[in-house]
Amino acid sequence: MNRRLLLVSNSTLHGSGYLDHCQQHISNFFGKDVKKVLFVPYALHDRDTYTRTARDKFKTLGYEVESIHEAKDPVDAVRRAEGIFIGGGNTFRLLKSLYDNKVVAEIRKRVLEDGVPYMGSSAGTNVATISISTTNDMPIVYPPSFSAIGLVPFNINPHYLDPDPSSRHMGVTAVLMQFCVQGLREGSMLLVEGNKATLLGTTKARLFTRGKPSVEYDPGSDLSFLLTDLN
Amino acid sequence: MNRRLLLVSNSTLHGSGYLDHCQQHISNFFGKDVKKVLFVPYALHDRDTYTRTARDKFKTLGYEVESIHEAKDPVDAVRRAEGIFIGGGNTFRLLKSLYDNKVVAEIRKRVLEDGVPYMGSSAGTNVATISISTTNDMPIVYPPSFSAIGLVPFNINPHYLDPDPSSRHMGVTAVLMQFCVQGLREGSMLLVEGNKATLLGTTKARLFTRGKPSVEYDPGSDLSFLLTDLN
């Protein structure tokens, strides 16, 4: 399997601009061969403005951006894509639009079979996993399923917040324990190349597995076992 | 419409026991005529333990508890109920179980037509509204719809957290603005009697209406306009 994924926890870090904190990783990831990236702005309501933001940023990195919402045929746009970037916003809105536009299976095929590089941020990271069951977003629209694109065999919570030790609200942690979950804190990224997974960025991530204590991993950690354990 | 609702934000306040913070309101609400309350423990996985907790607490207030999960026929249990209490947990699990057991319409009928008093806490407050679209819970199971019991014509976010002014995460507030939402903070309750709604408890609540600035209300405020505006 020659999949290549860059799964980013969030598109902005406090005090910096859009995708600034991961721009070197983006350049390394898409490299020199990709000239144009297909952007998926479905997670936000205002797709035009969102596309302008992404287009401006990717231009500074040397990439053209085509937005899927401007394409006549979204499925065809995926078939033609050299690289894919799905941005953040509301995870339910994003997944519903992916299904409405019938691109879920086509993105999966392009990434897993053809090796098209896939970058996700926040909600775009969430939908890259087996399901959106660990999103923190509100269910503002009703998607036809919670199953997602399924590029990796586990869940990711892209905005994992450490439970406040003084709080009695252990709800989030309790829920996460029901899945094999990678909890990415702000500034975290997961790079997947084939069957190798590496934690990038500046903050630790926490792994939750049902029936086991959770484990912390430092940036740079090899997390490839996440891909093979469940495969 | 002779509906009677007690919609509580959360079942425990820091440092106190289960339903302690609202026990006087519970006694006032169910009164002397109700002898037995139908408890709905669907929001948690361990329904037996949850029922014991609720039964023990209601016993101290002078009420018997029948749990719907112990009834042979859940719909019949709703038909026989003198009073209903739906407890908190995961909102998606709760709503799915309400649909699976075919009690959504029956609870609506009993409360709106027969005047059976309905108490909800947290997820049980969420499902009393038009939809679960403002829950903060994770979508761990897939309900057949996000439409809920519909006892009031607006949404409630039962665990409203004030946005941190130092944070750039305005996501929650932005989403809430899309609905007519009552944001209940910990310790808040909404009492609905027919077409009269009153804010009870110890903390303010915040009202979000699409296209309008949000408004804060003190405990004791008359919020009846919420019921008539959209009816």
Automatic annotation (TrEMBL), chains A, B:
Name any Gene Ontology BP term.
Answer: proteolysis
The record's principal subcellular location, in a coarse class, is cytoplasm
Keyword hit for Hydrolase? yes
Q: Which Pfam families match?
A: Peptidase_S51
| Enzyme Commission number(s) of this protein | 3.4.13.21
Indicate the enzyme's highest-level EC class.
hydrolase
Concerning InterPro entries, the annotation shows: Class_I_gatase-like, Peptidase_S51
Domain of life, per UniProt, equals Eukaryota
Q: Name one GO molecular function term.
A: serine-type peptidase activity
- Recite the UniProt keywords alphabetically: Cytoplasm, Dipeptidase, Hydrolase, Protease, Serine protease
Its subcellular locations are: Cytoplasm
Reaction equation(s) it catalyzes: Dipeptidase E catalyzes the hydrolysis of dipeptides Asp-|-Xaa. It does not act on peptides with N-terminal Glu, Asn or Gln, nor does it cleave isoaspartyl peptides
Q: Name one GO cellular component term.
A: cytoplasm
The entry's function note states: Hydrolyzes dipeptides containing N-terminal aspartate residues.
Spell out the PANTHER family in the cross-references: ALPHA-ASPARTYL DIPEPTIDASE, PROTEASE S51 ALPHA-ASPARTYL DIPEPTIDASE
Q: Which family does it belong to?
A: Belongs to the peptidase S51 family.
This chain belongs to which protein, by name? Answer: dipeptidase E
* Phylogenetic lineage: Eukaryota, Metazoa, Chordata, Craniata, Vertebrata
